[in-house]
Amino acid sequence: MVRNLLAGAYAGKLAAVNPGYSDVEGVPCFATLSELSFQPEQVIFAVADTRIEAAIEDAIRAGMRSCVIYSALVLENDTAPPLVERVRRRLTAAGVLACGGNGMGYYNFIHGIHACGFDTRQHRGSGNVVLLSQSGAGMSGILDVEERLDFSLAVSPGQELTVSLEDYLDYALDQPETRVVGTFLETSRAPGRFIAALEKARRRRIPVVAVKTGRTPMSRELARSHSGALSGTDSVYDALFEKFGVYRAHDMDDMVTALIMHAQPHPVGPGGLVTLHDSGGERQLLIDLAEAAQVPLTALAPQSISALEALLDPGLPAVNPLDAWSAGGPEYHKIMKECFAVLLRDPGAALGAVVHDRGPGGSLYPIYLDYLWCGHKASGKPVFLVAATQGVGADPQVLESTRAGLPVMDGVSAFLRGVKAVLDYRDFLLLPDPEPPLPLGGRARQWQQRLASGATPDELEAMKCLADFGIPVVAMRRCSNEDEVLSAAEELGYPVVLKTAQAGMLHKSDVDGVRIRISNSQALCDAYADLAHRLGAHVTVSVYVPDPAVEMFLGMRSDAQFGPVVIMGFGGIHAEVLGDTVCLLPPFDADTAARLLNRLRLRPLLEGVRGAPAVDVTGFCRVAAAFSQLAVALGEVVQELDINPVRVRPDGCQAVDALIIPRRNTGAATPEPE
Asked: What is the chain's mean pLDDT, rounded?
């Protein structure tokens, strides 16, 4: 620990406290904190949990303002409240900023503070990458090994006793050195501050790359035992990351790749990827992998094709990706270099890569680096040297080239995921600002008051709520006897839909409580007699929305961490069986709904298949946007709200079924908003 502090060349005062030594690595050592000649701004505790409370009290008396705690704060046969909670309360009461416990400390390279008690590599000084990791090994496993990254700040916040990951993120975004932030995330302990920090990152155009654990039940449970973190709902984190342009990395390798590519200094412009190869087979493989990774490969402009044809040996097609190796010969280096420059100068090229195989022992052939320099000099665009496989061994040229702004990467698949990350972030920055919540009108406030009672509205009332928020709904009537049913059908016009409206029957199809496409009075009387006999006299009669139509689903859930979230997808059995849905944080606009809708597997159904006409996708997306405003307005009083389905026709769409479950499903009914 002391060696790390000395290696950081911290300019302030250092002192060690241990009665067994007079100095540690030349730093004066004192028996107790009270013997110090200065007030410590920060105390780093490397003591056993059995002694930590007494040590903290000594430090508070000495004037400690902040601290680092490495130990797990767990005692055998502990009393209630447990040690970790006692320490949290004491530090909070004293106003002490604490990194830890059960963490590995931090590195502030800007100010030369290496407050970590574990071995590390030699660092060059402050860089432009921030790493915030709720896994201690997640921090050290990258910081200590990945020399292609130069960090400005790295933190293992551990149990986040008084300072959370959100606080570190907010601080890092204010530092001028910060170009990109990587996070290893188990959970957000302060969701509101996390959202605020991600919004700050969006405004300041600083990309955030996240590894988020908790996709599986076992992972979520182990997160709780590891650091006391509740991992949260995985799909909601996906929605959060989508809203703020956060790249969710598959694993730590993926995160490192994205950090390297974001940290390089050259801006990524419009267009796709161009690549130069010396192998036709590896070129074909990259094409397959790029399609799987959804990475656009640039279609070359006519002038680029002509320039390449003038350079290439006969038989080599002038296409991107380009295999420029043929018979070799004395001119092949010149040909490869000039071909790469042509690729990069193409107006559709955003970035480029030379894809190659490393030499014996993991060495780099210098000529490939020459291709990089030539391509970058010709275009000013980002370029990368990519080994077709993960290499072994080390070559000093890897660091030299990467630190010069031309990164060297290993593995085509990892590289392509990095390309996807930087291109997606480029496109994210072109989007308009997030949709703001609309001001609450009188009707919205009435619905807030109505639903705050906790009484579950029936379907007719739920449909009225949707209509008050601008969502088109089918005409519907509430009936309690056969005469009312027949009268409603005559008023609305056949065909009609008949549904049970007995109290407590939230999912009508589960009790065979729905009859559709009823086309005459006799069929209606027969259907009503059956429902009344089995389920009760109360029913609704509504207009049937005829085919051709596609059934869609809109739902709202109240998430324990992030509040209301919207689920959008294909309705009916598609929602229940296939789960072809996406999750979004409200509010959002119709364009956002359309963009997310395109990710669904069944999306082609909306364009018409097997002779069916295309339906009104634009209209549905407007409805989804209106629904998102409803979700925000009623999110504090509603636990669940479903429209299943919204029937989308070529000439519009309508909600035909709605369910609202208030947060507290108790209490007497209150009058509907007028």
From this structure: 93
Counting residues of the chain whose pLDDT is more than 70, the rounded percentage is 95
Distance from C-alpha of 304 to C-alpha of 295, rounded to nearest angstrom: 21
Q: Are 33 and 4 in contact (CB under 8 A)?
A: no
Specify the pLDDT at position 672. 41
The tens digit of pLDDT for each residue in 240-251 reads 999 999 999 999
Number of domains in the chain: 4
Read off the pLDDT of each residue in 419-429 and give the average, rounded to a whole number. 98
**Tokens at residue 244, please?**
């703020």
User: Which tokens is 284 given?
Assistant: 């074909």
Distances, alpha carbon 647 to alpha carbons 216, 379, 489, in Å: 34, 51, 20
Assigned domain for 34 exists: no
Query: What are the phi and psi torsion angles at 109 (to 5°)?
Result: -75, -20
667 pLDDT more than 50: no
CA end-to-end span of the chain: 69
Does residue 243 form part of some domain? Answer: yes
**Spatial separation of the C-alpha atoms in residues 141 and 144, rounded to whole Å:** 6
Q: What amino acid occupies position 660? A: I
DSSP assignment of 150-182, as one string? -EEEEEE-TT-SSS-HHHHHHHHHTSTT-SEEE
CATH of the domain at 671: 3.30.470.20
Do 378 and 497 lie in a common domain?
Answer: no
CA-based nearest residue to 98, from 129, 125, 73: 73
Q: How large is the average pLDDT for residues 650-664?
A: 93
Q: Which residue has the tokens 């933190």?
A: 155
Strand intervals (E) in 560-615: 563-570, 581-584
- Angle at Cα 127 formed by Cα 163 and Cα 274, nearest 5°? 115
Answer yes or no: do 221 and 329 share one domain: no
Q: Find out whether 32 and 17 touch, Cβ atoms under 8 Å.
A: yes
Full residue range of the structural domain in which residue 643 is found: 434-474+548-674
Last residue of a domain, one of 263, 297, 315: 263
Do 379 and 313 sit in the same domain of this protein?
yes
Does 96 fall in a domain? Answer: no
pLDDT value, residue 507? 82
Q: 205-259 pLDDT, tens per residue?
A: 999 999 999 877 776 566 554 444 544 588 999 999 999 999 999 999 999 999 9
Residues 574 and 663 in one domain: yes
Per-residue confidence band for 506, with pLDDT thresholds at 50, 70 and 90:
confident
Report CA torsion sign: 184, 187, 191, 193.
negative
Report the relative pairing of strands 208-212 and 180-185 from DSSP bridges: parallel
Residue 541 · residue 488 · CB < 8 Å: yes
* Mean pLDDT of the 655-664 span: 92
Integer angstrom CA distances of residue 158 from 142, 184, 511: 17, 12, 50
Q: At what angle do helices 252-263 and 412-429 cross, to 10 degrees?
A: 60
Same domain, 127 and 251: yes
Whether residue 350 is contained in a domain is answered as yes
